[in-house]
Each structure stands twice: as C-alpha cells, then as structure tokens.
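User: Can you help me understand a structure? I only have the sequence.
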Amino acid sequence: MEPLDMFSRLCVAFLAALFISATDSPGSDPSHWTQAVLFAPEHTDALYFHVLDRRDELKLRAFQLSDSATSMAPGSNEKAGTQPVAVTLILRTSNGPVSSNGKWTRAAGTSSITFARDVDAAPVPEQSLLLLARHRTDGPPPEFECHILYPDSAHYATALAHFGLAREQAHVGVSGLDTVCQTTRTREPSAALQKFLPEFDRIEKLSYVPTQRRGSTGIGYTLESLLGIEENNRQTGDFLGMELKSHRDSELKSSSSRRMNLFLKEPQWIDGLSHRTRIPKYGYIDGNGRRALYSTVTSNENSHGLSVRVDRGQRRVWLQFRGQPVAYWTFEILAGRLQEKLRETAFVQAATRGAGGSEQFHFNSVLYCSDPSIEPFLSLLERREVVAEMRMHLKPEGTARNHGTAFRVMQDQIPQLYAITVQCRSVK
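Assistant: Let's start by predicting it. Here is the structure, written out as tokens:
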C-alpha cells in the first residue's frame, strides 16, 4: 500500500469523525469485541484507532489521523486534482447500518469535501476511542465503517488489548493500526509494554542525558543503562522479551540510508566447503591484507557475485554465487527468527545535541510494533530494503573468523514488517 498525502488522511478522518458517534453496536457474536462492535468484521482488512481529547471533539470536522493510518485512505496513488473521488461510509441509524455516499477532492493548496447527506457529530467524552475499519471490496468506491467507543463502553478495554494496550495506557493522542485484522483472535495487553511505558515516562522527564558510550551504538547503550539492562547477546528481546530498538530522530526519515539489525542467522550451506575454503572462493583481499568476505547481499548480484533469491515454490531464500545456489534459509527458519527476536518491539526515538563523547539524548517517542510476518519480510528482501550481510575473514594462522550473517533493514521500512503498530508516545 502506498503512502498518502496529508489531505487523503484528512478526508478519511473527516468521514470517521463527522458521521459516526456511538458506543457499542449489536453483533452476531458478542464474545469477541470486533463481532460486537463492527458491522462487518468478516469483511474488515484493516483497523485503526485514535484516543480522542476535548480539542478533537471541537475540531471533528478537521480531525487528522496519525501517520500510522496513511495506508488506509483511498486515492493514495493518484495525483492531486479537481476530480472528486467517491467513498462509501457505513453509518449507524436506529434501523441498523446503512451506506452513505461521500466525495473528497484534492487540489493544489486547497481541499474540499461534499456529502450526500448532512449528519451532525455528537459530543464525545475525553479519551474515547475513534475506530476506523476498512472493508475489502472488489473495486471503488472504498468502504469504511466508523465507531467511537466511550471510556465506559463494555468493549473499550478489549479494543485496546487488541493493540497490546491496557486501559491505563489510553493516553490522549495514542493511535494504532492493524493491517491484518484477525478479528477472531483474542489478545491480551502486552505485559512488557505495560512495564516499559512508565519507565520510559520516567526517562523522558530527565530531558537530555549524556551518552554513556561514543559512536553509533551510544544511544542504545545509554537507553538500556537507564533501564538497568546489562549489555547482552540474547536471542530473545531485551525487556521482558520485548526487543528495544533506539534511534536518533533523523534516522527513521525516508531520506535516511541507515540500516538497522534485525537478527543473525547463518544459512544452510550446500557448496561442500568450509569457511576456511569458502572465504577465498567468494571473498577478496581486504585493506589489512586478509582474505575476507564482508559483503552486503541483495536481490541484485553484487561486485562479489553474491545475491539472494526468494523462492516461494520451495519456500526458501537462496544465497547465490554468480547465479548458482550455494546456501539457503527456509521460510520457516526466518519466520521463527522474526518471532523469536522481534515478536514485539519498541522503537524509541531521541532528539540529540552535541557529538561524540559529548552527545546527549532526549528520549521522546515510542512506536510499539507486534506480530511480524514473513511475507512483508520477503517483499522487503526482494525490494532490497532488507539485506543479508556476510561478515567473515581468515585469521593470520589460517582459521576462519565468522561474526555471523546479519539480516538488516532500512530504518524507515521497519514498521512495514509488523501487522500492528501503535504510537504510544510522541514528541510533545
């Protein structure tokens, strides 16, 4: 799904906020909150929520969704123009759900929306949840249904739990997106996230703190030190099983070329060689005069003759040398490592000032992600957003030193790996 411009997000949000103000609605199976709240849970393929405040109530006609919901709105791949785009919104009436037609128009520097009917939005209590559900359709117009759950709603807490949050974590402005929307799966709030957020709030109040290590790894080391986590090489997540990934505030922008480690996993070699003989065959002489194989491998063959190829028929990712398979990872192995290391991850952002040993960090934002999936991982691998990095060399005595094969991802693409993303804290 393509990213949207500001106006597209605004239009879908306008639809959500202008027409529907509700608590619970009847459903076919009230044992699961989506069955009880949504009109058509079986047709829902994405679900967005946002915690409202009084200002949102007063500005419902211009409510803006967060960046996490940009993939939900219609017309994302169209150029701005004057031709209106039709949308269908499922409305609540005393007689049940009905469809209403709406149109939104984009033009350079301006925007306008017209609707077939005029429905006033009722006031909503603070910390109510705005829910926007997108339906699978065979073609235009796109369909959405919208609901607002009041804090005293019977399904308020279970809706939050669907996104990994507990009731006390429903701070104003918190928002999230589920791009898979398994509406029959019952979720519990994340125990790790419940413990982490109060610790993050404590650290955020410290404002700028000095780095505890020079260099690119200083930010992660400083955060973990503030959390009382000792440096480790665990196969599982850092904080009660939840992985922590910290980044400077410029590193998740689309202009950033930085990559972040996902996990380590050696392939299953089928070339019949040992590392001692493999390095000279596929490698080179490095600047230290060693036989080495430090190579970033993508779906395009690199200067060392190495590439990766996704084979969905055999469910393998092949490592190739000059077009011939020499090793592989099974989809199951890679999916297992994703779940083992990245089942739930908190991406913590920090503003920075200073440099080197004088660098300081103000940790100010948390993006919580859960449910990584192998398919988006493979798609990112094919698009060269995920890469495999070989890291080995021969020691002077002739033995091999292997630092492990690392899978790494472009930092701005990280949220694409996950079904659920929640902006728990954001820059104030």
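Now, to help you interpret it: The CA atoms of residues 44 and 135 lie 4 Å apart. Residues 1-30, 57-63, 75-82, 103-121 have pLDDT under 50 and may be disordered. Let me know which part you'd like to focus on.
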